[in-house]
């Protein structure tokens, strides 16, 4: 692979990086290509199973693929107990810094203890295998403890990102029928306090299934505690029921581990379901090879545990690898734009994994901020969430990585659970390209009628081979699972992205082709924003689109038709922006609210967002023969 002549701007990894890497490129691709199941079986054998599987891949009920059927395991056991029982008992599993400068750390021993105690608390509240538990908080250790506690007893966790607000939380509580909500009193963001418990109280007024609310004290601000429903986490953790030991629930490989809601093309967010066995193997193996985790590494994924990136690569992946995971609560620029660089120096971070939007945001403050810090501990960098523009890539490479840290631009999705298109540290890189599918995976780029497109032509990105961490179904909606992902090109998984492949076989992601908008790497649906707008008493109809933005990648623009009797005004536009923030979350606040008298629609009444987009960008709207008016 390294001998090949590649076209365009190419960066070759250094001899040291290649020598250090777990991944030996030629060998790995060859082995996985020739024997996909053998490859994954080999990876799975590195983890603990109470009972070995009968079959690696069971495709008898496509597209409901099953992995490691007959196998018995538990991901929390592999994340904690395995290390506690070996030489990693006293190794740091988690290092945490709060935005306000507070610091905490957990060895594998203490993280297991805390999660066991909390698992016992959950059991005492009647939580059983298969029950759903919702977690809603900022980036704090209790989120990790809560997720691991659920996994330990076989409860299904549903984490709701702490940046979401009332309606998003309500919808997710209701859809998952959660009995228990674990919430923080608040969280620190940019020096301000977000009152999470207050938001939760409002959401709970709309949701009926929650019996118990466990409140983690983070900010200490006064909160409303409803008698008989709300309890303090720290008080429960001090009761005798919070025993230090908690038996592990032996799980079937295909038993659900978690659901995670993500925005889709239409309607309500979808609950993506992942399992104990396959997800565990996929996440373990991809992190090991791509970020080349070694025993003494300190690894920092700066995403939020409330998104799949955090699930797979702050919590499960690093712990499965016995690594030291670092978590930071707050904003990269608080109190100054050197906060991240200071953290890297202070904790000696070796691997940094973040999003293009964060890099672009920090780039704006100039090189002086990072240059003030010793970043020489860094060995590998990562990027995720949206395409990285070559300019940001080069800055990241030169200013942060000092031209010695390869950048792993990982393409994947909530649905894929693990990295899918990604470099390995042994590969030549091209800025802006995620390079190639992970060993053993086959992907393609198709035209409308399902034929592969030529080199450098744009088309629909599909996945042709199953993979262990793949989505199993949409919770409570298997039909939608089949329609959404497997019906456009039967047999192939439809990603919803468009992409092109160059003459060297390198993939270049262009972006979403559906009504999903990536704002600062966060995935939002036009439907959620629009339904928040129409829930306001002044709004008759609304449309949302994403338009290019320098730092955020895309920003939300909305068009609103007012109900009779309401007047257009700056004040009302601002009120509508705030309303979306209150219902969906601050990340969903539109950049602009424009009042219009009509919206472009098809004859069947569907809003033609592409026409709005073309108009806003001053482009030709293309084929508008289906336009009603
Ligand atoms: C969508 C999935 C997977 C973790 C974070 C996002 C976009 C993701 C990349 C990348 C170009 C990317 C795609 C994808 N995306 N990573 N490296 N290069 N685009 O997970 O919220 O489920 O979003 O994010 O459009 O479909 P998600």
Structure description:
Helix 4 (75-84) crosses helix 6 and helix 13 packs across helix 15. This protein starts with 14 loop residues before the first helix and ends in a 13-residue tail after the last helix. It is globular and about 70 Å long. The protein contains 19 helices and 29 strands. By secondary structure, the chain is α/β, with parallel strands linked by helices. The strands form 8 sheets. The chain has a 7-stranded mixed sheet with strand order 5-4-17-16-18-19-20, with helices on both faces. Strands 12-11-8-6-7-14-15 form a 7-stranded mixed sheet, with helices on both faces. Bound molecules: 5'-O-[(S)-butoxy(hydroxy)phosphoryl]adenosine (WT7).
Counted beta strands? 29
Largest sheet: 7 strands, mixed
Global mean pLDDT? 96
Number of helices: 19
Termini Cα gap:
55 Å
Helix/strand class: alpha/beta
Distinct compounds present: 5'-O-[(S)-butoxy(hydroxy)phosphoryl]adenosine
Radius of gyration from CA coordinates = 24 Å
Q: Kindly state the percentage of residues in helix.
A: 25-40%
Kindly report the spatial arrangement of strands forming the biggest sheet: 5-4-17-16-18-19-20
Strand content: 15-25%
Tell me the overall shape.
globular
- What ranges have pLDDT less than 50 throughout 5 or more consecutive residues? none
């Amino acid at each position: 692979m390294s001998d090949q002549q590649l076209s365009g701007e190419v960066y070759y990894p250094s001899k040291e990086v290649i020598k250090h890497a777990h991944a030996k490129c030629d060998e790995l691709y060859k082995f996985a290509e020739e024997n996909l199941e053998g490859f994954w079986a080999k990876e799975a054998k590195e983890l603990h199973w109470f009972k070995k599987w009968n079959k690696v891949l069971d495709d008898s009920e496509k597209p409901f693929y099953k992995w490691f059927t007959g196998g018995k395991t538990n991901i929390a056991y592999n994340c904690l107990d395995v290390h506690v029982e070996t030489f990693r008992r006293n190794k740091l599993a988690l290092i945490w810094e709060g935005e306000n400068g507070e610091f905490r750390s957990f060895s594998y021993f203490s993280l297991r203890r805390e999660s066991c105690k909390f698992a016992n608390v959950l059991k005492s509240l009647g939580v059983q295998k298969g029950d759903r538990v919702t977690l809603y908080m900022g980036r704090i250790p209790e989120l990790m403890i809560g997720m691991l506690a659920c996994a330990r007893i076989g409860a299904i966790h549903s984490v709701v990102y702490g940046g979401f607000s009332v309606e998003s939380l309500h919808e997710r509580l209701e859809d998952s029928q959660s009995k228990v909500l674990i919430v923080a009193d608040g969280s620190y963001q940019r020096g301000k306090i977000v009152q999470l418990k207050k938001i939760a109280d409002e959401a709970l007024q709309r949701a009926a299934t929650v019996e118990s609310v466990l409140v983690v004290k983070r900010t200490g601000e006064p909160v409303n505690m409803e008698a008989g429903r709300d309890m303090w986490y720290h008080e429960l953790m001090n009761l005798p029921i919070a025993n230090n030991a908690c038996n592990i629930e032996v799980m079937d490989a295909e038993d659900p581990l978690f659901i995670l809601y993500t925005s889709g093309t239409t309607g309500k967010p979808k609950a993506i379901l992942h399992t104990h066995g396959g997800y565990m193997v996929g996440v373990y193996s991809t992190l090991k090879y791509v970020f080349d985790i070694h025993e003494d590494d300190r690894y920092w994924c700066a995403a939020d545990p409330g998104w799949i990136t955090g699930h797979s690569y702050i919590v499960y992946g690093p712990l499965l690898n016995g690594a030291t995971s670092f978590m930071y609560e707050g904003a990269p620029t608080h109190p100054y734009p050197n906060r991240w660089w200071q953290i890297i120096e202070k904790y000696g971070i070796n691997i940094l994994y973040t999003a293009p939007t964060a890099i672009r945001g920090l780039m704006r403050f100039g090189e002086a901020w990072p240059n003030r810090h010793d970043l020489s501990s860094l060995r590998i960098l990562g990027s995720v969430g949206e395409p990285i523009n070559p300019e940001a890539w080069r800055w990241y490479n030169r200013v942060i990585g000092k031209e010695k840290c390869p950048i792993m631009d990982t393409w994947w999705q909530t649905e894929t659970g693990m990295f899918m298109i990604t470099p390995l540290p042994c590969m030549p890189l091209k800025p802006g390209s995620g390079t190639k599918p992970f060993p053993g995976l086959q992907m393609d780029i198709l035209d409308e009628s399902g034929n592969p497109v030529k080199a450098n032509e744009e088309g629909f990105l599909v996945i042709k081979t199953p993979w262990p961490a793949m989505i199993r179904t949409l919770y409570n909606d298997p039909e939608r699972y089949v329609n959404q992902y497997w019906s456009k090109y039967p047999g192939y998984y439809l990603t919803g992205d468009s992409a092109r492949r160059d003459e060297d076989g390198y993939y270049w992601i262009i972006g979403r082709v559906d009504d999903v908008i990536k704002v600062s790497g966060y995935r939002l649906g036009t439907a959620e924003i629009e339904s928040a707008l129409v829930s306001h008493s002044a709004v008759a109809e609304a449309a949302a689109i994403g338009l290019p933005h320098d730092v955020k990648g895309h920003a939300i623009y909305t068009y609103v038709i007012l109900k009779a009797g309401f007047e257009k005004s700056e004040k009302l536009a601002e009120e509508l922006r705030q309303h979306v923030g209150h219902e969906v979350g601050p990340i969903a606040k539109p950049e602009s609210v424009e009042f219009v008298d009509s919206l472009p629609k098809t004859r069947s009444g569907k809003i033609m967002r592409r026409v709005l987009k073309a108009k806003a960008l001053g482009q030709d709207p293309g084929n508008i023969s289906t336009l009603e008016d």
